[in-house]
């Protein structure tokens, strides 16, 4: 996760990409909104395609380490 940085002096310490002021959550939300990795890189020019992949891996790892209570389905 060399592309993910956490620095209290940058964006209040939220996980960002390569020390830029671009939070991982922003990239993940853009993917969830239907943007492709290419569109995200075009929208946020400092980013590279590898940054988008790193953001998704970081998010996946973050939720994999948590217990998420599920509601039973009918």
Task: Provide an overview of this structure.
By secondary structure, the protein is mostly helical. Helices cover 43% and strands 5% of the residues. The protein is built from three helices and two strands, in the order E-E-H-H-H. It has helices at 24-32, 37-43, 49-64; strands at residues 4-5, 16-17. The protein starts with a strand and ends in a 10-residue tail after the last helix.
Oligomer: single chain
Number of beta strands? 2
By secondary-structure content and strand pairing, the structural class works out as: mainly alpha
Question: Roughly what is the average pLDDT, rounded to an integer?
Answer: 93
- Overall radius of gyration: 14 Å
Helix and strand pattern: EEHHH
Q: State the strand order across the main sheet.
A: 1-2
Instruction: State the helicity in percent bands.
Output: 40-55%
Rounded to the nearest angstrom, the distance between the terminal CA atoms is 39 Å
Largest sheet: 2 strands, antiparallel
Runs in which pLDDT lies below 50 for 5 or more consecutive residues are none
Overall shape: globular
The helix count comes to 3
| Percent in strands | 5-15%
Helix/strand layout:
Elements: E1 4-5, E2 16-17, H1 24-32, H2 37-43, H3 49-64
Antiparallel strand pairs: 1-2
Helix pairs in contact: 1-3
TL;DR?
The protein has 74 residues and is mostly helical.
Q: What keyword list fits this structure?
A:
74 residues, mainly alpha, two-stranded antiparallel ribbon
């Amino acid at each position: 996760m060399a592309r993910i940085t956490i620095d209290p002096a940058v964006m209040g310490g939220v996980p960002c990409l390569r020390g830029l002021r671009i939070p991982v959550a922003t990239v993940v939300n853009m993917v969830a909104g239907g943007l492709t990795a290419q569109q995200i890189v075009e929208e946020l020019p400092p980013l590279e395609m590898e940054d988008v992949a790193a953001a998704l891996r970081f998010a996946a790892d973050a939720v994999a380490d948590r217990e998420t209570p599920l509601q039973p389905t009918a």
